[in-house]
Design goal:
This is Endonuclease/exonuclease/phosphatase family metal-dependent hydrolase. Keywords: Endonuclease, Exonuclease, Hydrolase, Nuclease. One of its GO terms (molecular function) is exonuclease activity. A six-stranded mixed β-sheet has the order 3-4-2-1-12-11. Strands 5-6-7-8-10-9 form a six-stranded mixed β-sheet. It has six helices and twelve strands. The radius of gyration is 17 Å and the shape is globular. By secondary structure, the chain is an alpha+beta fold. A hairpin with a 2-residue loop joins strand 3 and strand 4.
Length: about 250
């Protein structure tokens, strides 16, 4: 098959640079465009925030995911996870191809960290079956992540029937790298950077990446190439590095 899908995953950090020093959403939009990705998996995306809108003159009137999609990604989905007085944020997926259906699945453990799995079914013209995409942002506590990984594996097995390709990408907060074996055993998923480079990508903190927090897992697909985007402008646009991966069918 000559066709390939370009996948980008990034923790948006709500449109602010490291330590919230600058509002950089406009620069992020330009950087994301240069990646020329077919599918963009985004975490910590603000849907609405009245306080930021008052403080920043260049705050967009549209939700961040719509502002980023603009006219480039004609289809997008948003899963609202955390709701607070000024607004809400969650995960989003931008797609060059039609998103036929999507659902946001609450995987929060306890009351404090609100987390979700955004599942989208996407019609890719050259694929004979729908592509399933799940955008992930797991919790900070390992005990919570164990439960959330179980929920992720169950969701993947439920929504993606045998033979249907699956991409799971996002911020796993899995600094001990426990997810690889769990997802391989429970959901037959393999991690793209491990397949290509022999190890998971180091993505955090972006200026001096030491921890492998961000991942792209695949089923029914294989990676052609992988890149960790740590140089300018990416190094000044979030506290996480962006991951870029090109994949094809097995």
């Amino acid at each position: 098959m000559d066709h390939a899908l370009r996948i980008l995953s990034l923790n948006l950090h709500k449109g602010f640079s490291s330590f919230n020093r600058r509002f950089v959403l406009h620069e992020l939009r330009e950087a994301i465009r240069t990646a020329n990705a077919d599918l963009v998996f985004l975490q910590e995306v603000i849907g609405e925030h009245a306080g930021h809108a008052r403080r920043h003159a260049n705050w967009p009137p549209a939700p961040q995911y719509e502002f980023l999609a603009d006219t480039i990604w004609t289809s997008h989905a948003y899963g609202r996870n955390a709701v607070y007085q000024d607004g809400h944020h969650g995960n989003a997926l931008l797609s060059h191809f039609p998103i036929e259906a999507y659902d946001n699945h609450d995987i929060s453990v306890g009351r404090h960290e609100r987390r979700g799995l955004l599942h989208c079914r996407i019609a890719v013209p050259w694929l004979t079956r729908p592509l399933h995409a799940i955008c992930v942002h797991l919790g900070l506590r390992e005990a919570h992540r164990r439960q959330q990984l179980g929920a992720l594996a169950a969701l993947a097995n439920r929504v993606a029937a045998a033979g249907e390709p699956l991409v799971v990408a996002g911020d796993f907060n899995d600094w001990r790298q426990r997810a690889h074996r769990r997802l391989a055993t429970d959901a037959r998923m393999t991690e793209a950077f491990i397949m290509c480079d022999g190890r998971a990508a180091r993505s955090f903190p972006v200026r001096w990446p030491l921890l492998s927090l961000d991942r792209i897992y695949l089923r029914g697909l294989r990676p052609r190439s992988t890149r960790v985007l740590t140089r300018r402008p990416w190094s000044h646009l979030s506290d996480h590095a962006a991951l870029l991966c090109e994949v094809e069918t097995c």
